[in-house]
Amino acid sequence: MTEREIQLRRTLGSGPPDDLVFGEAAFSDVDLVLYVGRANEDDPPAAFQSQLNVETTTQLNARDTANRARANHTGTQSAATISDFVQAVALVAPVQAVAGRTGAVVLAKADVGLGNVDNTPDAAKPISTATQAALDLKAPLIVSQGNTTYGATVNLNMATLAGTHQTISLTGNIAFTSSNRGTGRQVVIRLLCDSTQRTLSFPAGWRFLGTKPANIAASKVGVLSLTFFGDNDSDGVASWGVES
Question: Between β-strands 164-170 and 144-147, what pairing exists: parallel, antiparallel or unpaired?
Answer without folding.
Answer: parallel
